[in-house]
Design goal:
Elements: E1 20-25, H1 29-33, H2 35-40, E2 49-53, H3 59-65, E3 71-77, E4 80-86, E5 89-93, H4 98-105, E6 112-115, H5 129-134, H6 141-155, E7 160-164, H7 171-186, H8 188-197, E8 198-206, H9 214-224, E9 232-234, E10 239-243, E11 259-260, H10 265-288, H11 294-298, H12 301-315, H13 325-337, H14 345-349, H15 352-359, H16 361-369, H17 375-390, H18 399-406, H19 410-419, H20 423-426, H21 429-440, H22 445-450
Parallel strand pairs: 1-2, 1-6, 2-5, 3-9, 6-7, 7-8, 10-11
Antiparallel strand pairs: 3-4, 8-10
The chain binds D-mannonic acid (CS2).
Length: 460
């Protein structure tokens, strides 16, 4: 039945194909439900097409190219699903096609480069310096971007904005440091040109977008009457806060609800600590207690209490008149509880050493500086430590160091893990002891079930 349906094509697209003026690195589900969605909903969408490049694998580009960049956004709430075709991606390209990337970054009409390359990728560019120097093709997103910027400089194509959309605090500055770090080693003149011509915009991005499944593909066929091999399922909520200059212009994203601010830090921290921090607690504590999704974990009082206590701690350090923390927390409980969105804890658990540095460390440090224990932030680290003990293969940019730490025992093991997040905290014996105690309270689900029927294996 499905095979007889026409493939999604421009006849059902909302607007004609726009010219490429945005280049994106990191073509994944989140990019499509967020930046591509906002661009489609900008009042001047007709002027802003996105050329989107994949990261490590070509698959997403292959599928999307087969339907001219089009895809369906399925907005899923407790009330039901709504379907919308998004047409702002006008070119979907395999990231290994560095030639096309360079050509587009160097094109004068390109005004913006957006990034969703994962938190971990910002530290990887050094590997690319020898490749760039020898004239070989770079393999990391930032290495590839530097090559594109070199071509833009040579073409005298003018300034542009690089907009990081990864969950890092001060992500614009992190992107700038990463790009300049590579450029300085490669070509000092290029580094100076970047400093003078490239603006690095910081943003806080938010839209929960789990990996799509085969069921989602079947649902779109059934409801929409066409075949879409790359739908994306997301929550109705979306948020984008941006801070920085766009020297070559930008879409009117504010028409779609994006907010432009001078000081992004309070918004960034609110999102990274309250949303992402809670996610990380649920990811490790939840899986240790036998849960699979965010909604399931949140329904477990041990996990939700750990989240609430962390929110109480973090909120003490979130000051700003319009942050509306109680409303934000209430909205998060609703969003996490949206059980029609199966947001898998295993997906959130990955890359912990990078994520916890943003999500747990600042709150823990701030609490200790204020003379308190920081127990709830420490618990986030503790549940990770407990989780990697029984799941040593968890994907992580520092997986080798995590494995080494796992060879140790007790406080030594905890100190080694904490040192991957923050050197100072790992040398604070009070912190290490607290994390060890909290960690011992969380036992894997199997042991849990075998334990003598108390039902609660956590100190939360
Ligand atoms: C999650 C985020 O995977 C993770 O680490 O915390 O992807 C989260 O779903 C998004 O930031 C929501 O905007």
């Amino acid at each position: 039945m499905t095979a007889a349906l026409p493939r999604l094509n421009r006849d059902v697209a909302p607007n004609p194909k726009a010219p490429v003026r945005i280049v994106h690195l990191g073509l994944g589900a989140f990019h499509r439900s967020h930046q591509a969605w906002f661009t489609q909903h900008a009042g001047d969408a007709g002027e802003w097409g996105i050329a989107s490049f994949t990261g490590r694998r070509p698959d997403a580009a292959d599928v999307l190219a087969g339907q001219d960049g089009l895809f369906t956004v399925v907005e899923r709430s407790d009330a039901g699903d709504s379907f919308e075709v998004v047409g702002s991606i006008v070119e979907a390209v395999d990231g290994a096609n560095v030639g096309r990337l360079v050509e587009l970054v160097a094109a004068p009409q390109t005004a913006v480069v957006t990034l969703t390359i994962t938190e971990a990728a910002y530290g990887l560019g050094a590997d690319d310096v020898p490749l760039l120097v020898s004239g070989a093709q770079p393999t990391t997103p930032l290495g590839r971007l530097v090559l594109g910027l070199a071509a833009r400089k040579d073409a005298d194509a003018g300034p542009l904005a690089v907009v990081s959309c990864d969950n890092l605090s001060e992500n614009g500055n992190v992107a700038r440091d990463g790009v300049l770090g590579i450029a300085r080693e490669f070509d000092g003149g290029l580094a100076a040109w970047i400093e003078a011509n490239v603006s690095f915009v910081s943003t806080s991005v938010d839209r929960i977008t789990p990996r799509p499944t085969a069921d989602d593909v079947a649902l779109v066929s059934e409801k929409c009457g066409y075949r879409d091999d790359a739908p994306v399922v997301t929550e109705p909520f979306r948020n984008w806060v941006l801070s920085g200059d766009f020297p070559a212009g930008r879409p009117r994203w504010e028409d779609a609800g994006a907010v432009f601010v001078d000081d992004i830090e309070p918004y960034e921290n609110r999102k990274l600590w309250l949303l992402n921090g809670a996610h990380s607690i649920l990811a490790y504590a939840g899986q240790l207690r036998g849960h699979t999704t965010v909604a399931e974990a949140l329904a477990d009082p041990v996990c939700s209490q750990a989240v609430e206590e962390f929110w109480d701690e973090a909120s003490r350090h979130l000051t700003g008149d319009d942050l509306r923390i109680p409303e934000y927390r209430a909205a998060l409980l609703d969003r996490f509880g949206n059980s029609r969105i199966a947001h898998h804890l295993a997906q959130i658990a990955m890359d912990a050493s990078t994520k916890l540095r943003m999500r747990a460390v600042p709150v823990l440090r701030a609490e200790r500086a204020a003379g308190r224990t920081g127990e709830a932030a420490a618990r986030m680290i503790a549940v990770w430590a407990a989780y990697v003990e029984s799941n040593p293969g968890l994907q992580d940019p520092q997986s080798g160091a995590v494995a080494q730490a796992n060879q140790l025992y007790g406080l030594d093991r905890i100190a080694a893990l904490v040192s991957l997040l923050d050197g100072g905290l790992s040398r604070d014996s009070g912190v290490v002891k607290l994390i060890e105690e909290l960690s011992a309270g969380f036992v894997p689900a199997a042991e849990h079930a075998a334990a003598s029927g108390s039902g609660v294996g956590a100190t939360a």
